[in-house]
Amino acid sequence: MEGGASRFGVLLFVLIILLGFVEGEEEQRITALPGQPRVNFSQFSGYVTVSEKHGRALFYWLTQAHSNASIKPLLLWLNGGPGCSSVAYGASEEIGPFRINQTASSLYLNKYSWNTDANILFLESPAGVGYSYTNTSSDLRHTGDKRTARDSLIFILKWLDKFPRYKYREFYISGESYAGHYVPQLAQAILEYNKRYFRSNPIINLKGFIVGNAVMDNYYDNIGTVTYWWTHSIISDKTYKRILKSCDFRTQNTSRECDDAMDYAMSYEFGEIDPYSIYTPKCEASSKRLRQRSLKFKNNPIHLRFSGYDPCTERYAEIYYNRPDVQKALHANTTGIPYKWTACSDDLLGNWKDSEFSMLPTYKKLIAAGLRIWVFSGDTDSVVPVTATRFSLRHLNLKVEREWYPWYSQGQVAGWTEVYKGLTFATVRGAGHEVPLFQPERALTLFRTFLSGKYLPDSSKQ
Questions:
Q1: Is 117 a catalytic residue?
Q2: Out of 181, 303, 331, 433, which one is annotated catalytic?
Q3: Is residue 224 within 8 Å of residue 390, measured between CB atoms?
Q4: What pLDDT, in 10s, does the model give residues 81-122?
Q5: Which of 61, 70, 250, 397 has the highest local Cβ count within 10 Å?
Q6: CA 413 – CA 435 distance, rounded (Å)
Q7: How many whole angstroms from its chain centre is CA 68?
Q8: Within a 13 Å sphere around the CA of 333, how many CA atoms are in the beta-carbon half?
Q9: Which of 51, 125, 177, 277 is catalytic?
Q10: Are strands 119-124 and 74-78 parallel, antiparallel or unpaired?
Q11: For residues 70 and 119, is the Cβ–Cβ distance under 8 A?
Q12: Which helix (H) or strand (E) holds 168?
């Protein structure tokens, strides 16, 4: 009898703990967003404190999978900048389940959302981005790669305590642009944590990552970017030669001659185009803002001259996510942040303190660790272009496993790919900086194939 009572006590204790977890989840459940169509999946959002001392808290939005959410993998999505919002871009323009209409009054469904195949966790990181905040104002002037990776790891660990059913679940990371730093740096931090605390059966069951138009190496990225401008007839022969002669891309140092050459290229020779998608119409309201950002941050490397894709849809997001009823539904801005929600933080971009010159050594470590690693590139982006990525990847000196070939989606050539030992590279034809925005169907095919661990389809009949 005593043994039975003891077992009952243990079961009761476990039940109380589980009920506590459920109650914690329910507090962050999204019943429905204003103007949202009816959906068959659950959503949760809220804050996780990553520094009690400084009062740093990161905002997340989880959209569970359409079906079989309990067995499908968990994907963490990070946008870059540094200082741009995963809610503004990843969730609202790219891989999320909803799009915002032109009046910011309602949402409509994205039939190519990646939550058809995975549970997606959007994270606004670091503190100061979007709804994420810090109570220590100096944090905004001293943020960089190291703190971002550390805070993101703390976030995941604490978030898993809130949502324990995702512990031990297959876990992947994705993102774009400056997330070319965030994603592999976080992957490395997770591997180091697992090695230290969970040598077997880690609660963060990291399997790999997939990153697009990624900042990888300052030298090769910058050379590849200028080369893209020239080979796509955006800049003149004279300016191309002038930039190569005056800019020392092997260091972080700049010069007046280099600044003048770069400013001339962007202010006069580029013309009124969207640099994130050179063949599509630009948004009239975006052009001036992009130019102001490019001049304001002219002392940074090329990849920091623009702080995130700025189409007209960003305006809809900035209206929608500043609505009090939207913030209430999202459990956001609960502390009364003293500024408006914006898609990108110029304060963070202008004060970024540490940025690794090259991510290639980190890639080598992650490849050696056996992670599934895919790098993709939209081929109409002039900010972090396909040439930059190819120059960087070439210097990893990886053995080719399957040589260059066209891959297909819906009967059309969707891009080209080459598979190396430890890494797959793919281009996406006709896509700009935000690949899922411009080519959503092709991006979904890419993601599904990544999850499957197979080669991209090499025939239009597949």
A1: no
A2: 433
A3: yes
A4: 999 999 999 999 999 999 999 899 999 999 999 999 999 999
A5: 61
A6: 15
A7: 25
A8: 18
A9: 177
A10: parallel
A11: no
A12: none
Vertex 87, ends 62 and 443: CA angle to 5°? 85
The answer on pLDDT for 73 being more than 70 is yes
Largest CA distance in the chain: 91
Kindly report the backbone phi and psi dihedral angles of residue 284, in degrees, each rounded to the nearest multiple of 5, phi listed first: -55, -40
Among this protein's residues, is 345 annotated catalytic? no
Distance, CA of 35 to CA of 100 (rounded, Å): 9
Measured between alpha carbons, how far is 424 from 402 in angstroms, rounded to an integer? Answer: 9
Rg (CA), the chain: 22
Superfamily of domain 22-216+308-462: Alpha/Beta hydrolase fold, catalytic domain (3.40.50.1820)
Tell me the pTM: 0.89
Q: Where in the chain is the domain with CATH 3.40.50.1820?
A: 22-216+308-462
- For the residues 221-244, what does the mean pLDDT come to? 96
Strands (E) located in 276-341: none
Contact (CB, 8 A) for 420 and 400: yes
Instruction: Give the pLDDT score at 8.
Output: 52
Stretch 426-441: mean pLDDT: 95
Set 151, 217, 274, 381: catalytic member: 381
**Buried b or exposed e, range 229-254, using 16+ CB within 10 angstroms:** bbeeebbeeebbebbeebbebeeeeb
How does pLDDT run across 126-178, given as a tens digit for each residue?
A: 999 999 999 998 888 889 999 999 999 999 999 999 999 999 999 999 999 99
Q: Distance between CA atoms of 25 and 393, rounded to whole angstroms?
A: 41
381 has catalytic annotation: yes
By DSSP bridging, strand 119-124 and strand 56-63 are: antiparallel
Tokens coding 437: 């925005």
Kind of pairing between the strands at 400-409 and 74-78: unpaired
